[in-house]
What does this fold into?
Amino acid sequence: MLSIAEQDYGTPKRDSATLVTLTIDGREVTVPAGTSVMRAAALSDVKIPKLCATEQLEAFGSCRLCLVQIEGMKGLPASCTTPVAEGMKVSTQNKQIAEVRRGVMELYISDHPLDCLTCPANGHCELQDMAGTVGLREVRYGYEGASHLAAEKDTSNPYFTFDPSKCIVCSRCVRACDEQQGTLALTIQGRGFDSKVAASQDVSFMDSECVSCGACVQACPTATLSEKSLIDKGQAEHSLITTCAYCGVGCSFRAEMQGEEVVRMVPNKDGHANHGHSCVKGRFAIGYATHPDRIVKPMIRAKISDPWREVSWQEAIGHAAAELKRVQQKYGADSIGAITSSRCSNEETYLVQKLVRAGFGNNNVDTCARVCHSPTGYGLKNTLGESAGTQNFDSVMKADVIFVIGANPTDGHPVFASQMKRRLRQGAHLIVADPRTIDLVRTPHIVAEHHLKLMPGTNVALINSLAHVIVTEGLVKEDFVRARCDIGSFEQWRAFVALESNSPEAMQAITGVPAGEVRAAARLYATGGNGAIYYGLGVTEHSQGSTMVMGIANIAMATANIGREGVGVNPLRGQNNVQGSCDMGSFPHEFPGYRHVSDDKVRHQFEAAWGVPLRSEPGLRIPNMFEAALDGDFKALYIEGEDIAQSDPNTQHVTAALSSMECIIVQDLFLNESAKFAHVFLPGSSFLEKDGTFTNAERRISRVRKVMQSKSGYADWEITQLLSNAVGFPMNYAHPSEIMDEIASLTPTFTGVSFDRIDQLGSIQWPCNDQHPEGTPTMHVGEFVRGKGRFLVTEYVPTAEKVNARFPLILTTGRILSQYNVGAQTRRTENNRWHDEDRLEIHPHDAEERGISEGDWVGIASRAGDTVLRARVTPRVQPGVVYTTFHFPESGANVITTDNSDWATNCPEYKVTAVQATRVSQPSEWQKRFREFSDTQEALLKSADTLVAK
Amino acid sequence: MSGTEQRETAHGGEAHGGEQSLVKMANDIGHFFRAEPRREDAIAGIANHISKFWSRRMREKLLAQVQSGAADLEDLPREALKSLQPK
It folds into this structure.
């Protein structure tokens, strides 16, 4: 069912500089060439009946309801498939047309249940509407003949039902799966009367390759495909546009509401990042927001072995502030700090860093972006001049060669992956560099021309060998480099990569990628037209993460694949607000807008605005905080929306650091793993409960809108404000828009940003200022932000994490479509039906060698620790490499990962851990201790409930 | 901040992290800048990086380790650290 609040124009919008004028029912209409007659009519408020058409899909022309009469044309053409022409004269209504339409509807209704009053689509059913529109009054065929009314309902999917008895076989669902999602899981099976929608080889939706994006559900004009929430709750009565709080795509959604209850989330067709598409998480996995595990009362305790005590907000804030001050008095000003989260809004992260710098009086603030994309910021700032991706998502539609490095878009960024796949199906070339055979390597109608299946930890060796080919085979775009780049740095880089030691032939032994493949891929990227690189954490989470980002920027500059649409360097940010949390000054060395704290001019601006002196020395990064804690120098930590005890590497090191602190304040939705070490718990709000903005991977700032009251009474920005006031640094914002106004006043790339402006434009890509009043979709046009693009020499330095006889396999980690990061949100939804445990992927050869079969318990030991997971034996991973996800805390994936980190940013090296895998029969010792500790903490939480109940 | 000793965690296990972490960090930075053709540029690059991204206390601790002879710091970062010492 389409959104209750959006008008559907029947066929997609067409962009053309050529305008065409025609007449529809006597009205003159001017539209871009290529527009359908149906859309032209809709744009002039003439509604042509339709069933198989929706503007999200290409015209199909099957229902025959939209027939019109066009002067000079024979018969009654379908208005959806007929493009406008200059001077065309169209009649949408006359007796002949009416009779045909009524006849069509009569046939449809003769095989459709007449249960409108109890149907979930009642009131928004397009079939019902069309019956009314054409004036259907009787069905002459009767209802006794053969029909599909007894067809069995498929309720296998946890989020929607498929009721074939209501299906009119319009193919909208099939086309949505093909065109929008690109999974091609649905088909029309059979011919004539036997035609029916089938998932996969006529199996249940749950058993098919359906990825539950919900595009089919939205496209369905009847109640054949309906959200279970809609069936349960009924129709929404109002809606609000907000932004998804899952991945870095930042999809715009219309939250369809009944009062304060969400009925369903419908992707906003005008959403600039997602254009009406969604994934299983954003559309369906919002149940966590109202999950019984939500903690909605503040709690405190003296020791982590004490039961929690529910207290008033006043007492909790007062206690937290007193503890922070006590610790500073005892251990010094630098003994406390804070961690912000990429899951929080821009305004929230801005306030936390402000609290630390101005209220705590130090720069000990960091963000979880530290552990994902901090190398992106460092690498791109040093080469191109700005710590952000260069394009918008739509740019991919103009790419000729798409180069995906260390990213798994169909799982991690599924909505953008669908757009990318659309471009690939149009004929763009695909190169994938990944140790695993990710889905994108071979998916319906798409195959990677080159899959560079490198060994984990050898990215820089690979990028240097690609660069070697570009330089030595004369593929450098010399004109671009001479005009746009720093020549001295280019010559230095050229001489370095041209060394024989960087050739594909020399690097083959390191990377494991055949030299011929590398040469072919380099040639394709450099000469195949617009070359666009998309990369993820497979690039950044390495000891040479920053070096690899620089290496990527180097080859983009050398081949002139930057500074226009269709090209660029595109980091796929993991979480919803990774970009924003970095933009907002969450790093210990930078103010908002990536300006160093030692920059006197900038610091004085902030000092003047905030009214306090600020430190010019960088503070501690997250891993440095852990080290300082273990040394006894760092004693109190305020964590907003982050779960370091699960997400950060070397769990036992992290928990030792947490255990050594005297005051840990956790602000979150749930008693997450870090909160089990906390002394103060401040209940946070979900994205549905607050106003603010998120900034996605395209630098796109979008509004988050409050659709329900905060369950805990305060939005997260208000809690930070209360804490700040309690520690003695006054804050007095009445609304997050005032925080954004302050950000804009202090940040040159944000000067044109305000809530009002975002509301006017829908979203804004920074920089947005006097030079770019409507934002900047493509960066570095004409000139790099830093002036001349700077090449940097990127020597391959092998990781210190070596395989040997004791640890002969390399473990690499990643995530899966249905779960999200530490899983705190998605584990509390029906998404567990797809993935209810983390498994160890192991190649059949490695498994056979170890006597491991599918489903066996496998002990995985590294130099940092050991854990036990069940095996998934698959050739997806190459021999010598094992892989797991990290969505479940009891899996202990990060018990195994080590302290190695990126040289420049300390982003952990999650992607390379030397391990051994052996068949075992019971959980690891760590897992047993973890279970015991978690059970104790759960019991301490329950006893808090009991205390209140008394 | 050697962090070499193993500590008990709340999960009851041993923490194995942080071995020679500051020294390792400095050496890792040195490994990137050693590609600079001119030695003085490499040293300046390392010094600038440490100055921009390390807290004062981290710098002081590494310096103390170096001065006590305990740190296994490589040549380039050692030189860089010297250049960061107050004159």
